[in-house]
Every structure is written in structure tokens, then in C-alpha cells.
Design a protein that fits this description.
heterotrimer; A mainly alpha (605); B mainly alpha (225); C mainly alpha (154); A: Cytochrome C Oxidase, Chain A; two-stranded antiparallel sheet; 17 helices; 61% helix; 2% strand; B: 225 residues; mainly alpha; Four Helix Bundle (Hemerythrin (Met), subunit A); 8 helices; globular
């Protein structure tokens, strides 16, 4: 049996039939459907993920603007709201149900559809084959299915917004009993069923994608591309995929049990419940904490699924645009690995005050605080990469630096929240909202923007407009801090999250002005993202054309492909790799591509 | 098999699989790991609920019947041990099919696959009988006619978990049987002969053994302890 | 494709190994069943019962090992492949420990602070089974009573 023959037959032909011994260079005619819709080309699938993700980002962002409107102006009425939301905003005032539905959908959509599918779906698909030197993913067919499962999940989630009783409104974590009992709230009815179906489809999508990414990175690297020559993007995407493959199934199990609780009279999560207007429920013996355990067993790795791809891309972009090798390449891989492992061991720090055993909680505190070590290693390595570099402030680079800034600011508050004692005061306050939005929400968005600005020339053969990019960056970074910095103070003062109207609370009334400020900035930042969208779509068709094959002077393999690579990426042989990806400013040379053989007189790196 | 003799560092240097396996097998392995976490989460949830409950029904009183036994059968563990052996034997025939595939022995592959399918169907029939029997006794999702060991009332979670987890396992067996039937058809129509290898059978085999493996855990957790 | 003797060597074992593993699995299952039957006669709460349960879990792991190592051929794969599969599975250790520990803690919590929960676990249930297996239950009752008394005494 010759595996090699099998692999090469596959890689060479770029066909999804890995077992075909026939080695044919095919150039069959591609129709619109096979090229743009049911495409098996990883680059097209990446763009599909990106644009679907952008669609959701706009919708999710718009939702946040709507509920910020309620928080900032609890007494005002906006007649136009009734025009777009109908009965959910009677008299121009968002109803409580609508508010909770907006918050829930905003969270679900941004965490799963934008920052998981839109981020790692886009860049894992786009970069893995290009940077490891493969014709396509291990299984292009499953890769295509991965996107279409995501698309179906999107459609189902979108449809849940339009059902009579509204979308699910019990928070993106979908804790029972709100998620398990249809009688608990309007959103817990059809909206929750659709939410569950959508999320189940999403789990399948991420599983298909993740398996593909892992198999491609391990099995399909080009000649000479050893694991320690891989760019850090690939390492980060690899660990992301591993996290997804091992943690999503646990969520899936939790969802199946939830579906049974909802529809088949079981009581996995239900016990001792009295519903207003319904009476005491017969369900006994379940444990709502069990759901939280299952949810956060995914939920915590999930935040690293969101964060790691951003980290990887930022490492690459910082190094390229500082014209310096990344500082501490092996330490970067090691810390990624440590984060990936710790991600699985710390889930219960989301549950300190749920009735979790306090002793167990203390172990979770210890494990949680350990994450500070690899995170600090990464931060120091980014800073030392920048140190005395010839920095080129491209928009991508700016967003990468912004990522580092946000990761530090948000990471430090994580150390507070990781303490179970402090959590008694801080849990479920705006402090938590500020923490995770900065460290995982905005930071990962920045990683995504950095990636888009940096790899746009490879994706579409044109540049994004720089000026618009700078405007976009400065408004977004300043706005992000202005939105989330004040929330720390609100949280420290005890202001709980997920409340509909703070003006009726004596203790939180005084934050009315601050809330209005936050809401105003949120709207400005949202409109800056529209600017980015304009830039994106305008530049696809009208942007400045890329003329050089390697516009950033980068070492990695994707820049050795033609300007607009076809399916199969390299027209001839796949180039062989002779060195790591970070030979910048070595021996007086600005950069040395990975494909350049090591010269006899070269100094050791 | 020249690749097996090269040094480990060479294996990782790119241009070939570091594990010397084709990508499909690698993906199947990692899929099974992922599935192990699905089943693991189910069984651990079951354990968690059991640990957080004061009493639990005695499996030996619940699972004490077998087909054609009449009303007063009291034979705990008998029927389930038959089910277990059916699954183990079907796993053995699957290994033999994979083994025959390595030797390009089409006839043996087909025979052993057919036996595996039979084993799978036999297991599913046993499960169908057991579910039906329990259902007749009043057990179902949300209904638990059995009291705890100590005679106190039991929550419904005993039957809830039993039906959910064995159901999920049974679904895996069912899909395994379907996969094996497809493999059998492909074998009989010489698909693999034309390809020159029976690697697909190997992957189907991995899946089938995993189903057997899960049963080892389900059997222990529900019937024995 | 040259699958012949050469390949055989790589795959390892062959039919002989398969038969050997089949026998081992059967024996392990038989031992498990024997322990199961033995356990039926034991009092509900006893150290011996827990020890036997532990033994059964160990046997279960042994069976899992034989299935994965030989039937799934993992033992004959390259060491790195074995590592990439076995090492992530070690995540199960903390997964199991934390979940069960917290489950147990939740029971204590409810027994301490939830009088209804505590009360439920002391009240003898009315027979829910209809008719047919009633006599069976009656026979079993003295034993159950004893077990219950024991529990109350504790």
C-alpha cells in the first residue's frame, strides 16, 4: 500500500476523490454554480464564510445599537422603531421581550456566526492550504458541506427572528429552565426550537471544518514544511480546530438533553419548578447546574476558538510589518499549546456563584489564573517583536497592534474575574460585559480586521483603500475603549447586566448619563463599520490593483502563488520549503522567502 | 513501505503524512475522538445526576427479562450479556473483513461484512425487543415505573438517561449497519478491486469498532454498576 | 499496490491475534458478569460493593484498551498517531472528576438545605407497577426494608 501515492494523487489532481489512482490535471469548465455557489475551492469557501459572517456582523451589530438605544434613552420614544420592529416596539419603545431577544441573538450570532464561523471559517479555509503548500483542503467536498451546514444554520437562525413569539430571549448561554420550558417566556417557544436546530447544524458545520483543518495541516504540508516551519497563523488555526473538535460535541450532548427536556417530558435539567399561571411542574431530580457544566465545557474553549485565530494572524502581521522575525517562535507555539490545554480545564470559572462546590471552585481559580502565564508570554513576545522594528503602519498592522492593546486591557480584568471571591461581587455585572467584550469580542474583531486588510490583496487581487482603513481603525479603537472602559466602573458599582431599564433603580440611576454616552459611541462605531463594508465591497471591484506578487514583502507561501490563483493554487509544482517563515532582516536582506534554499554563507537563525 | 523505515524527523518534514496514513483515516480517527466526547458527555451527565440523587433503581430488577420468558422471568444480566456478545462477535467479523481487505480477498471481505451486518441487525433487534418490553412495563422518557433500591420513589432520570443514551448508541449501530451495507455493495460490485485497495473498509471498520467500544461503557454504566 | 507479506508485517498480528483478542474480550466480559452476579447479594451500601464496582470499571477499561489497540489497530500505528489520539483523551480525567465531584456536592447541598428533597428520599413509594409484577415486588420487600433501616440508622 502506498499512502504517498494516494496523497500525491490527491494533492496533484486537486480532486476530492482521494483514492483515485488516476492522476489527471483537469481543467474542466466551471459553471457559475460550481464556481461561486457549490464551490469546492477553499478560497471561494473562505470568501463565502467571510461574507456570511459580515452579514451576521452587521445584523448583530445593529441589534446591539437597538438595545443600546433602550439603555441610553430609556424614556424616549423612537417612532421609526415601530416601523421596523412592529409589535416589538409599540409606540416607538422597545418592549422588554424584544430587548431580551435582541441581547440573546446579538450574543449568539456574534460568538458563533461571526467570530467562530466568520473568523476561523474564513481564515482557516483561506490560509491553511496556501500557507502549508497544499492544492486544497484534505477533503474539499466536506469543506463545502461545512459551509452549507453553516449557511443552513444561518437561515434557521434568521427565520427565528420572524416567528410570532419572537426569537429565543434567555441569553446566549441558553440556561434552563428558561430554555427548557416553553411556558417560561415567549421566546422560549418556537424561537428556542429554531435556536437549537440552528446551533446543532452549526456544530456539524464546525466539526466538518475542524476535522478538515486538522487533517490538512498534519497530512498535506508541502515538502520541507516541517511543523516548526509553519507560520504561527497555521499553528493557531490548528489548535483552534482541535479545541472545536473536542468541545463542540459536549455542547451537542447538552443540547440533545435539552431537546428532550423541552419536548419529551424528561427532567435532565429541571427540578422543583413553579411557573406562574401553570403551577408546580412534575419534573423532579434534574440539575440546572449540569447544563451549565456541559455548556461551559464548550463555552470556555469557545472563547479560545474565537481568540486563537486572531492571535495567530496578529503574530504573522506584526512580524511582517515590523520587518523582524517573530520573537520567541517556539515560546509562541508552546503558549498556544498551553492555552489550548488549559481551555479545557477551567470551564467552571463561569459558574462560581451557581452553587458550585467552593472547594472545586478554588481549583478552578488556580487553573484559571494559570492562563495568565501563556497569555503574558504571548504579549511580551508581540511587544518584543515590535521593539526596534521598521514598523510599517498599514491598516492591517494598526489593527494588529490594536489587538495587542485590547488583549492586554481585557486580559488584566480577567485576572480579577478569575478569583471566586471577587466574583461574588463582580459576577453578572457590567464588569463582566466589559471584560469579555474587550478581550474576546473587540480583540478578535480586530484580529479579523487585521487579517482582512492584510490578505485582501491575495483574496481579490486589489487593495483596500488605506485612508478609509485608517479612519476605520481610529474610530473603532477609540470607540471600543470609550464604550467598554466606563462599563468597568458601572460593574464595580454593582450594576447588573441584562437589565431592561436602569432608570427605575435608585442605585443605578446615576449612570443614566454614562449609559447615554456609551450608546452614542456605540452608534458612531457601528457607522464606522459601515464605512469598512463600503470599503470592502467597493475595493473588490474598484480597488487599487495589486501589481507585485508579494506586496507586503512576506516570506510565507501564499505570496508565491499567482496574483489570482485558480483552484489548485500553484500552476506548476508546489514549491518546496527550505526555511521557517520569519527570516526578516537576516544577513542584511529585507526578507527571505520560505522557498529560498539556505545559502552556504548564511548565518544560523 | 519504505516510509516506515525513515527516521521520525523525516516523517514530519512535510511532503507526506507524518503518521503514514491517508487523510481519510486520520479524519475518521479524529471524528471518533470527537464522538467519544459526545458519548462521554452523555455518560458523565448520567453519572453526575446519579451522584446528585439520593436513591437509584436497581438495574437487576429492571433488566431481568428476556424474550419468550413470560411475566415472571427473573434473569438479570442474561439478555444483555447476549447482546454484548453479539456486538463483540460482530466486531470480530469486522476485523476479519478488514484483514481480508488487506489481502485483497474479495470473497472473505464480502462474507465477513455480511456477518457483521447480521450481527448489527441482531443487536438492533435485541434492543428493539428490550425497549418494547420496558415500554410495556410503563417505562419511557418522562415515565419511570421503577422504584429506588431502597423502595423510595425514583425520579424519572433513570429511564430518561437509559433511553437517551442507548437510543443514541442504537442510532450509531444503525448508521454503522447502513455504512456496512454500502461497503458490502461496493465490494460486490468490485469498486474496491478497481481502486486496488480496501481502505474504505478499514474506515468503516474503525467506526464499527467504536460503536462496540461505546457499548462496553454503556453496558457497564447501565447494567452493571 | 503491493499488499502482500510485506503489508501483513506492518499490520501486525493477523488472524491469530484477532482470535486471541476475541478470547480475552470474552473472558473479561465473563468476569464482569460474574462480578455483577456476585454483587446482587451484597448489601446496598458497603465497601465491598464499591470495590467490586471499581473492579468492574477497571475491567471495562481493559476491554476498551483491547478493542482500541487491536481491533482498531491503534497499537500498530506510528507512535505519534497514538499520542495524538491518546493524549487528548486524558482531558476526560478532569472532565469526569469535576463533574462527578460537583454532582456529589449538589446532593449534599440539597440534603442539607432542601427539606423537601431530603424527605422525598425517605418516603416509601407506592407501587407504581400495575398488577402483573406485584408479587415479585412483595417478595423483594423485606430486603428493601432492611436496606432502608440501615440507611436511616446511619
Amino acid at each position: 500500500m502506498s499512502n504517498e501515492a494516494v496523497i500525491h494523487a490527491h494533492a496533484g489532481a486537486g480532486t476530492h476523490d482521494a483514492h483515485g489512482d488516476h492522476h489527471h490535471e483537469h481543467h474542466h469548465h466551471e459553471t457559475f454554480i460550481t464556481k461561486y455557489v457549490f464551490s469546492q475551492d477553499h478560497k471561494m469557501i473562505a470568501k463565502q464564510f467571510l461574507i456570511t459572517g459580515m452579514f451576521w456582523a452587521v445584523l448583530g451589530g445593529l441589534m446591539s445599537v437597538l438595545f443600546r438605544l433602550q439603555l441610553g434613552y430609556p424614556d424616549a420614544t423612537f417612532p421609526w422603531l415601530e416601523d421596523i420592529l412592529g409589535k416589538w416596539a409599540k409606540g416607538g419603545h422597545i418592549s422588554a421581550e424584544a430587548y431580551y431577544a435582541l441581547v440573546t441573538t446579538h450574543g449568539t450570532v456574534l460568538v458563533f456566526f461571526v467570530l467562530t464561523a466568520g473568523l476561523s471559517g474564513t481564515f482557516a479555509n483561506f490560509l491553511i492550504p496556501l500557507q502549508v503548500g497544499a492544492r486544497d483542503m484534505a477533503s474539499p467536498f466536506l469543506n463545502m458541506l461545512s459551509y452549507w451546514f453553516f449557511f443552513t444554520a444561518s437561515v434557521v437562525m434568521l427565520s427565528s427572528i420572524f416567528v410570532e413569539t419572537g426569537p429565543f430571549s434567555g441569553g446566549w448561554t441558553a440556561y434552563p429552565p428558561l430554555s427548557a420550558l416553553g411556558s417560561a417566556s415567549p421566546g422560549s417557544q418556537t424561537g428556542m426550537d429554531l435556536w437549537l436546530v440552528s446551533m446543532a447544524l452549526f456544530v456539524v458545520s464546525s466539526l466538518l471544518g475542524g476535522l478538515n483543518y486538522i487533517a490538512t495541516i498534519l497530512n498535506m504540508r508541502t515538502k520541507g514544511m516541517s511543523m516548526t516551519r509553519l507560520p504561527l497563523t497555521i499553528w493557531a488555526l490548528f489548535f483552534t480546530a482541535v479545541l472545536g473538535v473536542l468541545s463542540f460535541p459536549v455542547l451537542f450532548s447538552g443540547f440533545i438533553l435539552l431537546i428532550f427536556d423541552r419536548n419529551f417530558g424528561t427532567s435532565f435539567y429541571l427540578s422543583d419548578i413553579f411557573v406562574n399561571g401553570v403551577g408546580a411542574l412534575p419534573n423532579e431530580g434534574g440539575s440546572a447546574i449540569l447544563y451549565q457544566h456541559l455548556f461551559w465545557f464548550l463555552g470556555h474553549p469557545e472563547v479560545y476558538i474565537i481568540l486563537l485565530p486572531a492571535m495567530g494572524m496578529v503574530s504573522e502581521i506584526l512580524s511582517v510589518n515590523s520587518r523582524k522575525p517573530i520573537f520567541g517562535y517556539m515560546a509562541m507555539i508552546g503558549s498556544l499549546f498551553a492555552i489550548a490545554i488549559l481551555a479545557f480545564l477551567v470551564w467552571a470559572h463561569h459558574m462560581f456563584v451557581t452553587g458550585l462546590n467552593p472547594f472545586l471552585g478554588s481549583i478552578f481559580v488556580l487553573l484559571t489564573l494559570l492562563i495568565a502565564v501563556p497569555s503574558a508570554i504571548k504579549v511580551f513576545n508581540w511587544l518584543t517583536t515590535l521593539w526596534r522594528g521598521n514598523i510599517r503602519f498599514t491598516p492591517g498592522m494598526q489593527f494588529a497592534i490594536g489587538f495587542v492593546s485590547l488583549f492586554i486591557s481585557g486580559g488584566l480584568t480577567g485576572i480579577w474575574l478569575g478569583n471566586s471571591a471577587l466574583d461574588i461581587h463582580l459576577h453578572d455585572t457590567y464588569f463582566v460585559v466589559a471584560h469579555f467584550h474587550i478581550v474576546m469580542g473587540v480583540a478578535s474583531m480586530f484580529g479579523m480586521f487585521a487579517g482582512i486588510y492584510h490578505w485582501f490583496p491575495k483574496m481579490y487581487g486589489r487593495y483596500l483603500n488605506n485612508t478609509l482603513g485608517y479612519v476605520h481603525f481610529w474610530i473603532t479603537i477609540a470607540g471600543a475603549y470609550m464604550i467598554f472602559w466606563p462599563m468597568h466602573y458601572e460593574g464595580l458599582a454593582g450594576m447588573p447586566r441584562r437589565y431592561y431599564d436602569y432608570s427605575i433603580w435608585e442605585s443605578f440611576k446615576r449612570f443614566g448619563e454614562l449609559n447615554r454616552f456609551i450608546s452614542t459611541v456605540a452608534m458612531i462605531v457601528f457607522s464606522a463599520q459601515i464605512l469598512f463594508l463600503f470599503n470592502f465591497f467597493y475595493s473588490i471591484f474598484k480597488g487599487r490593483k495589486v501589481t507585485s506578487l508579494n506586496p507586503w514583502g512576506s516570506n510565507t507561501l501564499e505570496w508565491t502563488t499567482p496574483l489570482r490563483p485558480g483552484h489548485g493554487n500553484w500552476p506548476g509544482e508546489i514549491p518546496e520549503v527550505h526555511r521557517w517563515a520569519y527570516d526578516y532582516g537576516k544577513d542584511g536582506k529585507d526578507f527571505i522567502s520560505q522557498t529560498t534554499p539556505v545559502g552556504a554563507d548564511e548565518s544560523h537563525h | 513501505m519504505s516510509t516506515t523505515t525513515v527516521t521520525p524527523t523525516k516523517l514530519w518534514s512535510g511532503g507526506k503524512s507524518p503518521f503514514n496514513v491517508e487523510y481519510g483515516k486520520l479524519m475518521m480517527w479524529y471524528f471518533l475522538m470527537s464522538d467519544a466526547f459526545t458519548f462521554g458527555a452523555f455518560l458523565i451527565s448520567y453519572g453526575t445526576i446519579r451522584f446528585s440523587t439520593n436513591g437509584w433503581p436497581n438495574p437487576n430488577e429492571v433488566f431481568r427479562s428476556y424474550p419468550f420468558a413470560g411475566e415472571n422471568a427473573n434473569a438479570p444480566l442474561v439478555f444483555v450479556s447476549i447482546m454484548t456478545f453479539i456486538l463483540i462477535i460482530s466486531s470480530v467479523t469486522m476485523v476479519l473483513a478488514v484483514h481480508a481487505g488487506h489481502n485483497m480477498d474479495k470473497r472473505k471481505v464480502a462474507i465477513n461484512l455480511a456477518l457483521t451486518i447480521l450481527g448489527g441487525l441482531a443487536f438492533l433487534s435485541c434492543q428493539a425487543w428490550e425497549w418494547n418490553h420496558l415500554h410495556n412495563e410503563g417505562a419511557w422518557w418522562g415515565h419511570n415505573p421503577f422504584n429506588n433500591h431502597d423502595g423510595t420513589a425514583s425520579s424519572t432520570n433513570f429511564t430518561n438517561y437509559f433511553f437517551t443514551i442507548t437510543g443514541f448508541h442504537g442510532f450509531h449501530v444503525f448508521s454503522g449497519v447502513i455504512i456496512n451495507i454500502i461497503m458490502l455493495i461496493m465490494t460486490l460490485t468490485d469498486k474496491f478491486e478497481k481502486r486496488g485497495h480496501y481502505l474504505m473498509i478499514e474506515k468503516a471498520g474503525l467506526y464499527w469498532h467504536f460503536v462496540d467500544l461505546v457499548w462496553v461503557f454503556v453496558f457497564t454504566c447501565f447494567y452493571l454498576i | 499496490m503491493e499488499h502482500t507479506a510485506e503489508h501483513e508485517e506492518h499490520v501486525g498480528g493477523g488472524v491469530k491475534e484477532i482470535i486471541k483478542v476475541t478470547i480475552i474480550l470474552s473472558v473479561l466480559t465473563a468476569v464482569e458478569l460474574a462480578l455483577g452476579f456476585w454483587m446482587m447479594g451484597m448489601p446496598l451500601i458497603s465497601n465491598l460493593r464499591i470495590a467490586v464496582k471499581g473492579a468492574i470499571v477497571i475491567l471495562m477499561m481493559a476491554k476498551a484498551f483491547y478493542i482500541v489497540a487491536y481491533f482498531m489497530h491503534l497499537k500498530h500505528e506510528i507512535k505519534n498517531l497514538i499520542m495524538t489520539i491518546v493524549v487528548p483523551l486524558s482531558l476526560f480525567v478532569w472532565f469526569i472528576v469535576a463533574f462527578l465531584y460537583d454532582g456529589n456536592s449538589f446532593r449534599h447541598l440539597r440534603n442539607t438545605y432542601d427539606p423537601h428533597f431530603k424527605e422525598q428520599s425517605t418516603i416509601q413509594a407506592p407501587k407504581k407497577e400495575e398488577g402483573k409484577s406485584e408479587e415479585k415486588k412483595e417478595e423483594a420487600k423485606p430486603e428493601e426494608k432492611k436496606a432502608e433501616e440501615k440507611k436511616v440508622a446511619e
